[in-house]
What does this fold into?
Amino acid sequence: MPLLPAALLLTTLLAPAPVRFTWPLPPPHAVVRAFEAPTSPFGPGHRGVDLAAPAGTPVLATADATVVYAGAVAARTLVSLQHRNGLRTTYEPVAPLVTAGAPVRQGEVIGHLQPGHCESPCLHWGARRDRTYLDPLRLLTRSRVRLLPLSGPP
It folds into this structure.
């Protein structure tokens, strides 16, 4: 087995592990409405997923983060978390148990689901990197492994 150059070995050892996200609610995880990417910054779409759950259900931090907002926006309350990989996740409508600036750990209860978003209670879970909205369900799975063709003899 060949030895790795010291710089590559050090970079590999010090590289942060990829952030692994978990569900924001205890099971089951019924998706009531799927993600629909907006075509423009203010265009139509559904900037997250809606997950069915009874009012009062604990809402969990999906990964370690810092709370950037916890409170009312218009007629709803929400919690917004900034993760170390540049992602921001939001959870609404949630009665927050956390405050802005507080660190949270994956699986920690950040609030409780309130009625009011869907016809039956549900959690709207959103994710974005910078100004690009992402399907939060993609945070739960690893990327597909892609094999490239062999360009020549080994």
